[in-house]
Amino acid sequence: MDIEDKKIYSDKWFSYLQEQICNQFEKIEKDAKSHNKFVSTNWYKKNNKGGGTYKILKNGKIFDKVGVNKSTVSGTFAKKFRKNILGAQKNGKYWASGISVVAHMKNPKIPAIHFNTRFIVTSKNWFGGGIDLTPCLKDKKEENYFHSKLKKVCKENSKDYLKYKKWCDKYFFLPHRNEPRGIGGIFFDYEKNNWEKDFKFVREVGLSFVKISTNIIKRKIKLKYNEGDKEKQLFKRGRYVEFNLLYDRGTKFGLNSGGKTEAILMSLPPKVKW
């Protein structure tokens, strides 16, 4: 399979997964007697260099705000940014396709959920991505469930779970606060051993996200919470914002590759406190 075929397969998968995730999340809202649905916006990069679709559901009964973005773009990185991307140092040319999801929940007992996977082509090509949780209230049972499911999908695909877990813990850390953003998960990048096997792993990570996120949400939908719980959630969201604006690679990549600003910043919650 040549690189152009790999681009086509990965692009189609990310589009399919976007639809699956939106359908599942809309069903959760519908089951809660909510009429809120995703609003879909297409955007296009200049000079026919691709674009994407970002879908946002706001102010639902379950989701305070959730964004599900998919994009496929190409172009040339600015010289000052090329050193940050594997294989881009020589001429800066790139092609990238991926999906990103951030869900901020109405109920503070349900954690914020983040997921993304991507396929990037420069003079090299590789998959990257991950899943992580950011709860504002501790729940050891939920934490154990979450990590066990990620461990399972890694094991079934002969991937190094402990390596990806440590990578996630290191990546989602706020050095200026000296604290983690959440409870971690898995994070991987520059994943290229066997394209077919890596693509299978990326697909199964995506399908696992759908199952894990919906199970966590449904288990806690009816839990009661108080104003103190909500205050903790709003302050925890502040840490989320700090990380995404100061350190997040996806944010930096999007802004340096001519992405749609509204889509890139969809990860920001609707309400927050410091």
Structural class: alpha+beta
**CATH domain class name:** Alpha Beta
At CATH level 2, the architecture is 3-Layer(aba) Sandwich
Query: How many beta-strand elements?
Result: 9
Strand order of the largest sheet: 1-2-3-4-5-6-9
Global morphology: globular
On the 0 to 100 scale, the average pLDDT is 94
Task: Give an overview in words.
The protein is an alpha+beta fold. It has one domain (3-267): oxygen-dependent coproporphyrinogen oxidase (3-Layer(aba) Sandwich), CATH 3.40.1500. 43% of the residues lie in helices and 27% in strands. The protein has helices spanning 3-31, 79-82, 140-156, 161-171, 195-220, 227-246, 249-256, 261-264; strands at 39-44, 50-58, 63-76, 93-105, 112-121, 125-134, 173-174, 179-180, 184-191. The protein has a seven-stranded antiparallel beta sheet. It has a two-stranded antiparallel ribbon with strand order 7-8. A hairpin with a 4-residue loop joins strand 2 (50-58) and strand 3 (63-76). Helix 1 runs parallel beside helix 5 (195-220) and helix 3 runs antiparallel to helix 5 (195-220). The relative contact order is 0.16. The model has no long low-confidence stretch (mean pLDDT 94).
